[in-house]
Structure formats: structure tokens, C-alpha cells
Amino acid sequence: MMRRKWMAAGAAAAVLAVAGCGDDGGGGSTDTGGGGEAIENAKQIDVGSMEGAKGEITYCQGKDTTGETKAWGKQFNEKYKSQGLSVKLVEFPASADEQRTQFVQRQEAKAGDCDVFRSDVIWTAEFASQGWLYDLTPYIEERRDEFIQPAIDTATYEGKIWGVPHYTNAALLYYRTDKIDAAPATWQEVYQQAADKGGIVFQGAAYEGLTCDWLEIAYAAGGTVLSEDGKKATIDSPENVAATKLMADAVKNGAAPKAVATYMEPESLTAWQTGKPAMMRNWPYAYGLSQDTPKLKGKFDVAPLPSFEGAGTAAILGGGNNVISVYSKNPGGALAVVDFLAQQEWQTQLTAEFTQASPLKGTYDQPEVKKAIPFSDDLLTALEQAKPRPVSPVYPQISQAIYKNVNEAL
């Protein structure tokens, strides 16, 4: 009887009623009316406009938790000082939802406050359909073979490319080698071992990170969110219920702390750095920061995400794309910033020093990258095989419906 009650509760949490997808919760408007016209009439970037560009470019992004933005900002300003071109960095809150809101408000006001914005990969369809971005297809086409294809796919909507990948991402399972003999092969084993070895931390707060965590398990279990044409919800399935139940049971049974329902990436990393948890699900950036932690150095390893018992394996493609606002008064200068960040020199440093996964294939052949990231070959394979999140101009509402309900289950 108790099992049937829990399955009913799990189903309610996993259904994520379609009606809930319309609740924007103050995250900014997503009026997709006229999207086709906006895309058809989109401004296309002039690649030659970056040559000799001058002025100050404002680059907007989330909180610089790794220090990489300060590093490249200093390098850019030193390189272009004599040309009269500089960049000013503006940080938005750490939460992806709040970053989106900040950018949406500026674009709705047709303000050129952000010449360049580091856009989460999930916002491409929404921003492009609103007519807010320059079409950067001409730039990418000149360099397409240099990029990992899934990274380009995250910037593509309706046949045009709206951003240049800054970094890409596929999550990893971090585990303590002094507590666990080998990386668990399945998610079920992850939670079973975590319950006995000190627990696992992940991103369980009601925000985009939880959507990623849940999709990794749901997709591995064989679940889906939308039909292939993107017009119907397919979320109410036994596979998705099983994924939700597995995560919720982890909290219920003590395999994950109750506080995990409030964790974003920084909180997960902080908990992991205490040395108590046996495992952590997080992005590659956490590797270097973990190595810098005395309690962890030499005592952990990473592995690709495990499979779902009896089903498959899935990783969710993350990352950020540099997009140029159509309201920028200096698109040439903005493209110069975007181009600087897409060059091999910076991308090598970004990956080797800041453990951010580069979207350039050549990065993973660099000696300093192989030395800094022993798992670089596995990471490249994971990136090339990762799956995108549901592609839709109203993705923010879809994601919100997922993370609100899964968080409630946790």
C-alpha cells in the first residue's frame, strides 16, 4: 500500500502538467509571436567589421566563479589597447534564471547595455525567435570544422547560427577513491553506495541545474520530454517516474542530504570540499577546484555518468554561447571580443587552467590540456555524444515545470 502511494506521488511529481509550462514565474516574457518573421529578417553579422574596431564593449555574464573572465578581460584589453578597443565586464547573479531575466529586460527595452552576452545554451531558440540576436552564421561557417558539432548545434535554430560557443559541458561523476573502489556502473549503484559511504551531492535546488540532473537520469532510463516535432508533451511515462523516484528515494533514505534540495553548483562543490561526501555530480570546472582542496587532492577521480539499470546512458550538453545583441552600437567591436574568446590560444588556457571544456576539437590535443586534465579524451568523447535539452522557444517554461516539480519531490 505504501509503495502504491509513493508511486502515485512520484507520478504526480513527474507528470509536470502541461498547464504548468505556461507559468513564467517572473522569469521574463517569452512571446513567440512573429518569431518566423524575426528570424527571416535577422541582422547578419559582417565578419569584416571587427577589423580595426574601436570603442568600449560591454560583456555581460553570470558570476565569475572561476576567475577566467577576469583573466581573459585583462588579456584582451592589453592586446587591443593600442587599437582603441577595450572590454568592460558586467556580472549578473549566479542563478541562470536571474541572468536570463537581466538580459531579457534589457532586450525588451531595446537597450544596448550588453553588446555581448554569455547565453546559456538553452536560450538560443527563445532569443532568436524574439529577434534579439545577430545571425553569426557567416563567422561560424568560416571555422565550422574547428568546433565540436554538438556545441554548434546548441547555437543553431531554424537553420541559422546565433552564437559562438565559449565553452561546452558534459557533467561528470566525482568519487572518492579512498571510499569507493571504482566508479559505480549504474545510477542505482551510485545511490546504494552513497548511502553507506558518506552520501552524494548534486544540484537539487529549484533551478535549471536540477533540470539537467533529472534529464540525465530520465533520458538514461529511456524517458523523453517532448515529441520529435516538439509539439506534444511526453513527460508522463513510467521511465520518468522511475527517474524521479530514484532521486527522491536518495534523499528519503539518506544517500543524499536533505539540504541537497537547496544546492546549486557552488553549494554542491562546497559540500564536496568538506571531504565528507563520497560522490558529487558536477561539471568539469569543479575538477581543478577540487584538486586545489587539501582534503581532496589525490583522493578523488572522475568518470562519465553511469547508466540506468536495464536501460541506457545519457549526458546533457551544457555550456555557454557568446551572442551579440542587435541593439549593440558597436557590433564590429563585439565580434572582435567573441573572436578573441574563440581562438585556440585562449581556449587552451580556458581548459587547462580553468577546467572549462573547450568547444574546439584542437584543444584536446594540446600538451598542457592533457597534463591538466587526465580525463580529456573521455571528456571529448562525452561532449561529442551528449544530448541537448528540449529545443523550444518556450524552453524556460518547460524547464521551470520540471525543476519545480522534481524539487518538490526531493
Structure description:
The protein has helices at 2-15, 35-40, 68-80, 96-108, 124-129, 137-141, 149-153, 187-197, 208-221, 238-252, 265-273, 285-291, 331-341, 344-354, 367-372, 376-385, 395-409, and strands at 55-61, 85-91, 116-120, 156-157, 160-161, 164-170, 172-176, 200-201, 279-282, 300-303, 317-324. It is globular and about 60 Å long. It has 410 residues and is α/β, with parallel strands linked by helices.
List keywords for this structure.
5-stranded mixed beta sheet, 17 helices, 11 strands, globular, disordered N terminus
Structure at a glance:
This protein has 410 residues and is of the alpha/beta class.
User: How are the strands of the biggest sheet laid out side by side?
Assistant: 2-1-3-11-6
Helix share of residues? 40-55%
Radius of gyration: 21 Å
Oligomerization: single chain
Order of helices and strands: HHEHEHEHHHEEEEHEHHHEHEEHHHHH
Class computed from helices, strands and strand pairing:
alpha/beta
